[in-house]
Amino acid sequence: MTPRRLLLGAFAAAPLLFGSGAVAAGTAYTPAAFAVAQKAGKPILVHITAPWCTTCAAQKPILARLEAEPRFKDLQVFDVDFDSRRDVVKRFGATMQSTLIPYRGETEVGRSAGETKPEAISALLDKAI
């Protein structure tokens, strides 16, 4: 099963290409959808991203490969557009694009900004599962 990727921002209706090669349609973010994932105890990743951000572009294939791994099969990813969703960026306390925030249910379990090393991103995501 391909991990669910929930989009926040201007590109909510655009499909995303996952590392498995499957195309999945994004689901628009709502506070309710995030709350449901948290209440269900899901592993969650919030990725603050921007289309012009080269660091974000470097993170995306790493995240796609990790999301395709069986250990991250339940990971729910919320992409937050840094430019168009300033309200959500502020809600998560992010100050820059390329921020990765993993949650285990309702608990934030780590945070990283600007990270592009696959092993460091993997270790960060491990905190959510």
Layout of helices and strands, plus pairs?
Layout lengths: L3 E5 L6 E3 L5 E3 L1 E2 L2 H9 L3 E7 L4 H14 L8 E6 L4 H6 L7 E6 L2 E2 L3 E2 L4 H9 L3
Parallel strand pairs: 1-4, 1-6, 5-6
Antiparallel strand pairs: 2-3, 5-7, 7-8, 7-9
What this model shows, in words?
The chain is an alpha/beta fold. The protein has a single domain (4-126), classed as Glutaredoxin. Helices cover 29% and strands 28% of the residues. Strands 1, 4, 5, 6, 7, 8 and 9 form a 7-stranded mixed beta sheet that branches. A two-stranded antiparallel ribbon has the order 2-3. Strand 5 (43-49), helix 2 and strand 6 (76-81) form a beta-alpha-beta unit.
Q: What is the name of the CATH superfamily? A: Glutaredoxin
* SSE sequence, one letter per element: EEEEHEHEHEEEH
Q: Counting H and I runs of at least 4 residues, what is the number of helices?
A: 4
Tell me, briefly, the overall form.
globular
CA gyration radius, whole angstroms: 13 Å
* Total beta-strand segments: 9
Share in helix: 25-40%
Percent of residues in β-strands = 25-35%
Mean pLDDT: 81
**Whole-number count of domains:** 1
CATH topology group: Glutaredoxin
Helix/strand structural class: alpha/beta
CA distance, first residue to last residue: 16 Å
Major sheet characteristics:
7 strands, mixed
CATH architecture: 3-Layer(aba) Sandwich
The low-confidence runs, each spanning 5 or more residues with pLDDT under 50, are 7-27
Q: Please report the first level of CATH classification, the CATH class.
A: Alpha Beta
